[in-house]
Amino acid sequence: MAQENLVYVPMAADIVHPGHINIIRIAAQYGRVMVGLFTDEAIASYKRVPYMPYEQRKAVIENIKGVSEVVPQLTRDYADNLKKYKPRYMVHGTDWREGPLADVRAKAIALIAEWGGEIIEPEYTQGVSSSMIQQKIRDRG
Questions:
Q1: Is 13 part of a structural domain of the chain?
Q2: Domain count, the chain
Q3: Collapsed DSSP state (helix, strand, coil) of residue 58
Q4: How would residue 100 be classed by pLDDT, with cut points 50, 70 and 90?
Q5: What distance lies between CA 8 and its chain's CA centroid?
Q6: Which candidate among 13, 46, 86, 135 keeps its CA 20 to 30 Å from the CA of 72?
Q7: Residue 44: inside a domain, yes or no?
Q8: Helical H runs in the chain?
Q9: Out of 11-25, 96-110, 127-141, least confident range
Q10: 65 lies in which domain range?
Q11: What is the CATH number of the domain that holds 75?
Q12: CA distances, 3 to each of 6, 74, 98 (Å)
């Protein structure tokens, strides 16, 4: 029997919202979902220290329907985990097409193509993001 396709989904998931659920739901349609969960250090390298430490975020994510496994994502660059796990698919929202992650995206596309993998880019879930939620909390403070 053929092994089920591995689908890699990187995320920080400090404040879990419907966008995360949407990405996981889409990824699960392609195979076994492995979430590359950013470590606290990885998140802090490009934005603030997360509210929840890695182990707490991991406990939340591994209990979301459709997630098969959670592994640490040590850096913003996905290359190490992509090389290690060689997923058939990687799912990432369209928000990385421009801005600071555009170079990371280009590298991931080239790398995953080396073993015939594919990047799937569902439309970024509009109207919700961790940054927006944080701003609402600050505004109410």
A1: yes
A2: 1
A3: helix
A4: confident
A5: 8
A6: 135
A7: yes
A8: 18-28, 40-44, 54-61, 79-85, 102-113, 130-140
A9: 127-141
A10: 6-140
A11: 3.40.50.620
A12: 9, 26, 34
